[in-house]
Specification:
single chain, two-stranded antiparallel ribbon, alpha+beta, 60 residues
């Protein structure tokens, strides 16, 4: 069974974890409403996805 010969230093451990950070969410401007929305998600304001009515729009 493989056993490490030395303890991993905090610096080396943190360098390995540097790729684990989450990136910021991306948003695009909707063509029809001009609202910001996530790509490949339903526009909650209009209820449209890919030009098709998926949800009934909320009346606020």
């Amino acid at each position: 069974m493989a056993v490490p010969k030395r303890k991993t230093s905090p610096s080396r451990r943190n360098m390995r974890r540097s790729h684990h950070a989450l990136g910021a969410n991306s948003f695009i401007e909707d063509k029809d409403s001009g609202e910001l929305r996530r790509p490949h998600h339903v526009d909650l304001k209009t209820g449209l996805y890919n030009g098709k009515q998926i949800l009934t729009p909320n009346e606020d």
